[in-house]
């Protein structure tokens, strides 16, 4: 799907009671996850960009097109964007096909047909149904299809799957993956789910109390030891690798991650496939190197080993825990270990160690 490659520039302030949102940033063509606690301003940011917050003082532009300058703004319907939320916004008196054509009617030179988008979203058999006859997951698929038929230059997704059960959510995320792979536009994705963020996002923007406190490539932000959520028990890192080979006799797949070799339960992918892995900080242990670092690898039940450098050590929560930041090649990893272990091993920044990974989850 050929699209323009414009960057979205947003500078905005919004005061509502004691809450103040103050944003100055930009979004290149990529998938940007917006993450943060409830009430931090994530949805307000999307609504400002969409032109739905009349009281916001903003400068917003998508490429050369100015959407808002101060209080003077382009109406929402004239902005080349699509907005998908968790709420059903399908027109109830129309069947799915008519809902899709309703969005399609604005496209004078449409690149996509209703049939093409229906196939992409897996809703070919739902076109004659009305919204009241659909499940929550089916409604979300139809809303994504309608958004695509608007042929937007910006896609806003506000927790689109939060109301779905686990099975429906998994199916929909797979559908969204396929869709996002066809786009070269800015996509802003609000979610509370770390798994969704890590599976879909290229960039991560973290908000707190109306402010941006971090923004950048996903794993760079995930491994920023100054951020509050990286000191939780669910702290994790995102590794990107390439499927090397399968070992059918052990039901394992081997993945190359910047020169390191990791094993996972066998997956249905071809060698050479690009993969994303999530590694929980609590599943990483540390071992000192001896003069022959390869000598004792067969002495442990943990088969995944990475030789890395400690680049940060900081106190964590509870006080008995420290957080280590490790690096090798272009990859970074977090490890949560006890302060007692860190002192016993005399760990220090710049030290070369062996990290043992107890388990890694395939995200994509």
Supply Rg: 23 Å
Helix content: 10-25%
Shape: globular
Q: Please report the distance between the alpha carbons of the first and last residues.
A: 21 Å
The succession of helices and strands, N to C, reads EEEHEEEEHHHEHEHEEHEEEEEEEEHEE
Instruction: Pick out the low-confidence regions.
Output: none
Query: What's the tally of helices?
Result: 8
- Roughly what is the average pLDDT, rounded to an integer? 89
Structural class designation: alpha+beta
Order of the strands making up the biggest sheet: 7-8-9-3-10-11
Range of strand content: 35-45%
The total count of strands amounts to 21
Largest sheet: 6 strands, mixed
Sequence-ordered SSE layout with sheet pairings:
Blueprint: E1 8-16, E2 19-27, E3 31-35, H1 42-50, E4 57-62, E5 65-70, E6 72-73, E7 81-85, H2 96-104, H3 114-121, H4 136-149, E8 154-158, H5 166-180, E9 187-190, H6 194-200, E10 203-208, E11 211-217, H7 218-222, E12 236-247, E13 252-257, E14 260-265, E15 274-280, E16 284-288, E17 304-315, E18 321-328, E19 331-338, H8 339-344, E20 352-357, E21 361-362
Parallel strand pairs: 3-9, 3-10, 7-8, 8-9
Antiparallel strand pairs: 1-2, 1-4, 4-5, 5-6, 10-11, 12-13, 12-15, 13-14, 15-21, 16-20, 17-18, 17-20, 18-19
Quickly describe the structure.
The chain is α+β, with helices and mostly antiparallel strands and 364 residues long.
What does this 3D model show about the protein?
The protein is of the alpha+beta class. 20% of the residues lie in helices and 37% in strands. It is built from eight helices and 21 strands. It has helices at residues 42-50, 96-104, 114-121, 136-149, 166-180, 194-200, 218-222, 339-344, and strands at residues 8-16, 19-27, 31-35, 57-62, 65-70, 72-73, 81-85, 154-158, 187-190, 203-208, 211-217, 236-247, 252-257, 260-265, 274-280, 284-288, 304-315, 321-328, 331-338, 352-357, 361-362. The longest helix has 15 residues, at 166-180. The chain is globular and about 70 Å long. The two termini are 21 Å apart. The mean pLDDT is 89.
């Amino acid at each position: 799907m050929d699209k323009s490659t414009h960057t979205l520039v947003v500078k905005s302030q919004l005061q509502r009671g004691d809450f103040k949102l103050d944003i100055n940033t930009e979004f290149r063509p990529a998938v940007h996850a917006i993450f943060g606690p409830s009430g931090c301003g994530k949805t307000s940011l999307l609504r400002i960009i969409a032109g739905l917050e009349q009281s916001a003082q903003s400068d917003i532009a998508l490429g050369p097109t100015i959407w808002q300058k101060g209080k003077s703004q382009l109406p929402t319907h004239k902005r080349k964007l699509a907005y998908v939320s968790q709420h059903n916004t399908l027109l109830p008196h129309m069947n799915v096909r008519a809902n899709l054509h309703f969005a399609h009617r604005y496209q004078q030179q449409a690149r996509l047909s209703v049939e093409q988008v229906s196939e992409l979203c897996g809703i070919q058999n739902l076109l004659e149904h009305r919204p009241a006859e659909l499940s929550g997951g089916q409604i979300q698929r139809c809303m994504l299809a309608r958004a695509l038929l608007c042929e937007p230059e910006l896609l806003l997704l506000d927790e689109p799957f939060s109301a779905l059960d686990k099975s429906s959510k998994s199916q929909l995320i797979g559908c969204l993956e396929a869709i996002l792979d066809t786009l070269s536009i800015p996509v802003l994705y609000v979610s509370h789910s770390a798994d969704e963020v890590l599976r879909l996002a290229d960039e991560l923007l973290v908000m707190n109390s109306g402010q941006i406190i971090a923004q950048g490539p996903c794993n760079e932000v995930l491994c920023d030891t100054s951020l509050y959520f990286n000191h939780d028990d669910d702290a994790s890192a995102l590794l990107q690798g390439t499927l090397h080979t399968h070992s059918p006799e052990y039901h394992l797949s081997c993945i190359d991650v910047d020169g390191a070799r990791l094993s996972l339960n066998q997956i249905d992918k071809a060698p050479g496939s690009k993969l994303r892995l999530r590694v929980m900080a609590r599943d990483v242990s540390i071992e000192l190197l001896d003069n022959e670092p390869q000598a004792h690898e067969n002495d442990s039940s943990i088969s995944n080993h990475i030789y890395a450098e400690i680049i940060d050590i900081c106190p964590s929560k509870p006080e008995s825990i420290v957080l280590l930041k490790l690096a090798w090649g272009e990859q970074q990893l977090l490890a949560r270990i006890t302060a007692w272990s860190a002192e016993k091993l005399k760990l220090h920044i710049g030290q070369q160690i062996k990290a043992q990974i107890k388990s890694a989850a395939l995200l994509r």
